Amino acid sequence: MKSSSLRWRFTLGFIVLQVCAVVVSLGLVFYLLSGIKPDVAITSIWLSQEIADSVDLGPDGRARLEPTAKLTEMMEDAPDLWFVADLGNGGVLSHGAIPQGIAGNTPFLKTFRSVELHGYLDDPLSVARMERFETPAGEATILAGGAPMSQYGVTVLLGNFAVGVPALILVVISLIGVPFVTRWALRSFGNLKERLDRIDLDTRGALVEERGLPNEVLRLVRDINRALRRLDSGFESTERFFVNAAHELRTPIAILQVRIDTLPASEVKMHLQTGIKRLTAITNQLLDTEKYRQKPQQDVTVDLNDIVSKVVADIAPFAIAEGYEIEFDSNTEDAFVRGDAEALERTFVNLVRNAIQYGGGSGLISIAVESDGSVTVADQGCGIADDKHARIFEPFYRVSPHGSGAGLGLSMVNEIVTRHGGYVELSSAPGKGSTFAVRWRGMRVFQHP
Fold first, then answer.
1. C-alpha torsion 341→346→348→351, nearest 10
2. 408 and 308 both lie in a single domain
3. Residues 27 and 162 in one domain
4. Which is nearest to 182 in space by CA: 402, 10, 353, 23?
5. Taking residues 17-39, what's their average pLDDT?
6. pLDDT in tens, 32-57
7. In this structure, what CATH number is given to the domain that contains residue 203?
8. Which end of the chain lies in a sparser environment, N or C, as judged by fewer CB atoms within 10 Å?
9. What pTM was estimated for this model as a whole?
10. What average pLDDT is seen over the chain?
């Protein structure tokens, strides 16, 4: 199903409701019209006003009639049209012949504020209207007739006008105002998005804050929080399983190692020792990985020169024993990052151990801190093919299936560096060795803490 904006859903919904209201209103208008006879006539509803607009004062100060364009048109279209504008004090303006029956009752009709005489469409002289208007020449009592209109038609016209204009205004308001009102009403969804963005795999026990949310959203948020609690519980059970499994494996592996060491030298013993070595590495790295994930990450100032030089000093004897030369170089005196010192140390240890394992047993392993704070570890081994670059950071993936590695070291390196806002860059080709570079995004590196 195609998704759409919630604001426009509300807008279209309001417009549909308005269309339904217009249809119902028109139905009511036509229902009212069903009680009106189509041959009943009233005088033109615009005639008296046009006459009042045509009354003016001449240069001599006397009232005069200057027909408007509309009144002129009506006088031409209705030959039976007549009117009398009585201004008082003997001032009378007239047009046409007043029907005798109406003329005889004029004094009586003038006693009312307004009067309407309804007749029939086929008898123009049977309709008349008497009203009082303010004109430039003073108050005028206007009695007019002879221009009949169908009462049915007038009702249809006024009914459609009364329904159509408000409907048009509502549609315009809906198109312009509803999106703004909806955005204001749904502003809590924006806050909800920000709250959800703060939740990730590393933030265990984090729940969506419920304060300030409307009731409709609050029910959804509470369901989300219940789901997050279930996920946290599941993650904790899984982590406990891995940690306990790693602990439980250490004892039988150690016993097995001792028993294998007592066997006489043979090819079988050598294969068993290789398998035990890899099993021990997997167990230790599984335990290290889960300990790191469960431990809250620290946010302290870490001196890259200090931590990398310490790693090199600790591993140098092992590298030399394996047949390598090892060197450390720094192109900057001050390079600091904010992060977890223990985790970063584990990162660089794994990178150097990886170089020892896949460096071919000879050559130079060089570790350096560059001027921008990047840390590089390079070996002169067999290198890594391009098609394997994207997979080496996957858990349990090994470049050489016959190696003793567990396939978890580089995965842990990538996870730690990513959490510290950096990334690991690999430069390698078959026969040319490999260089791993830990680089930091943005302004993560600074001088003088």
1. -160
2. yes
3. yes
4. 10
5. 66
6. 656 555 656 667 777 888 889 999 88
7. 1.10.287
8. N
9. 0.48
10. 77
From the list 128, 79, 124, the residue with the least C-alpha distance to 105 is 128
Is the Cβ–Cβ distance between 82 and 98 less than 8 Å?
Answer: yes
Assess whether 307 and 433 both reside in one domain: yes
206 residue type, one letter: A
Residue 191 lies in a domain: no
Q: How far apart are CA 308 and CA 336, in angstroms?
A: 12
Identify whether residues 119 and 207 lie together within a single domain: no
Q: What is the pLDDT of residues 252-295, one digit of tens each?
A: 877 888 888 888 888 888 888 877 777 777 777 777 666 666 66
Residues 449 and 308 grouped into a single domain: yes
Phi and psi at residue 359, to the nearest 5°: -85, -5
Instruction: Indicate the number of domains in the chain.
Output: 4
193 located within any domain: no
Question: Has residue 1 got a pLDDT over 50?
Answer: no
Structure tokens of 295? 């431990």
Amino acid at 125: L
CA-based torsion, 140, 144, 149, 151: positive or negative: positive
What end-to-end distance do the CA atoms of the chain give, in Å? Answer: 54
CB 359 within 8 A of CB 351: no
Q: 375 and 368 in contact (C-beta within 8 Å)? A: yes
Query: In the listed set 266, 295, 324, which residue is the last one of a domain according to the structure?
Result: 295
Tell me which residue has tokens 């009232």. Answer: 63
**Both tokens of residue 46?**
């615009």
Joined tokens for residue 265:
């030298």
State pLDDT tens for residues 129-152: 888 988 888 888 888 888 776 554
Q: Is residue 165 part of a domain?
A: yes
List, in order, residues 6 or more apart from 258 with CB less than 8 Å away. none
* 434 membership: H or E segment, kind and range: strand 434-440
A 10 A CB-CB count for 403 gives 13
Closest CA to 312 of 345, 340, 287, 276: 345
Domain limits for position 207: 198-295
Residue 240 and residue 214 share a domain: yes
Determine the Cα–Cα distance for residues 379 and 361; give it in Å rounded to an integer: 10
Residues 250 and 271 in one domain: yes
Residue 71 inside a domain? The answer is: yes
pLDDT of the residue at 444: 55
